[in-house]
Amino acid sequence: MRIAYVCSDPGIPVWGAKGASIHVQEMLRALSRRGAKLTVLTPRDEGTPPADLSCVQVQALPPAPKGDPETRAQLLLKANEAVTDALNALSPDLVYERHALYAHGAMEWAARQGLPSVLEVNAPLLAEEAAHRHLALPSEAEASVRRAMQSARLVCAVSPPVAEHARQMGATDAIVVPNAVDPERFPSRGPRPARPFTVGFLGSLKPWHGLPTLIEAFASLRAQVPEARLLIVGDGPERSAIETRLAELGCLDASEITGLIPAAEVPAALSRMDVGAAPYGASERFYFSPLKIYEYMAASLPVVTSRTGHLAELVAHGRTGLIVPPEDAAALADALVGLATDLARAQGLGAAARARVLSNHTWEKVAARVLSHLQASGPRAA
């Protein structure tokens, strides 16, 4: 099967190290292992693909537009023509697209050709862009989203709220397919080396990840477990504020922020941790499917996360990790202290977490489910 994988989001370098980039690479890997011949359409093809993805062909789209938001949005809308031209030349059997703002050309092209198509939706992008950045040409942006959703034969959403958003935008067939892991990237853990208890965080340093709560909790942990360490793997706009607060609390010397690292180095970084933290804040419509949690679990780490959204369905409290109230540094600190002073329990939770994620949440199973559902749905009636 020849699959055109479309990723027209100018913020996602397909061979990069950010979470969205890893998501793209993992889906490409899973589809390739099922025998697909893949061509990626992207405006961000810089970098070198991993060795096991060297067989993936790349069709460069026009470079990511720059300029004021309105001009940029107009150019992104025009880029649908380039996507259509590229698909005409490729003539694939299936179009798989990672949903992006202002992008509807791929799904409409597949619908016109009567070909199967999958639209992978990772967030309600209209609301996200309006809340955290600037949504230019809002009417045109919404119309583009509706065109993509209505044209896709199958929409795969990472969480129930995202699936509901897709239906509201006109998707006729939307299923929930959470994120996953590649077991081959995360070997089984050996005996724990002698070292200080280490709290870990993996991800971009952005406001919604709850780093201020984690910093306060870590300071409280250090009051009871003075040798405890904090390892933050990632980078982002909050880094300076995090470092300042760590210094104010006298914890900077017990902390390390690695910055952004290649995906190949993530498993080794996680192996230095004893617990994986995901301290998301309170949210009425929490829609994330946090890749970090799946990777913590695959790395045999107990997860401490917030009781928000559907996270309590992923992390079983007292079995694969601990759930605490959001934005409650004292409760988060208590959970960390409990694990730091009972390493046997921490390791038991981590082992159970690994067993659960590897049995239920692998990219191979994601690809199999998507393709199976697509086949069962059959062609859309005219």
**How many whole angstroms does the radius of gyration measure?**
21 Å
Enumerate how many helices there are, as a single number.
Answer: 14
Strands in their spatial order, largest beta sheet: 3-2-1-4-5-6-7
Strand tally is 13
Quick one: overall form?
globular
* Largest β sheet strand count, sense and barrel closure: 7 strands, parallel
- Global structural class: alpha/beta
What's the mean pLDDT score? 94
Distance between the termini: 24 Å
Poorly predicted regions are none
Beta-strand residue percentage: 5-15%
- Helix residue percentage: 40-55%
Q: Which series of helices and strands comes N to C?
A: EHEEHEHEHHEHEEHEHEHEHEHEHHH
Q: Would you give an account of this structure?
A:
It is a single chain. With 382 residues, the chain is of the alpha/beta class. The protein is 43% helix and 15% strand. The protein contains 14 helices and 13 strands. The chain has helices at residues 19-33, 69-90, 105-113, 125-132, 138-151, 160-168, 211-224, 239-248, 266-270, 291-298, 311-314, 329-340, 343-360, 363-377, and strands spanning 2-6, 37-42, 57-60, 94-98, 117-121, 154-157, 174-176, 198-202, 229-233, 255-257, 275-278, 303-306, 321-324. The strands form two sheets. The protein has a seven-stranded parallel sheet, with helices on both faces. A six-stranded parallel sheet has the order 10-9-8-11-12-13, sandwiched between helices. Helix 11 links the parallel strand 12 (303-306) and strand 13. Helix 3 runs parallel beside helix 5 (138-151). The longest helix is centred in the first third of the chain and has 22 residues, at 69-90. The mean pLDDT is 94.
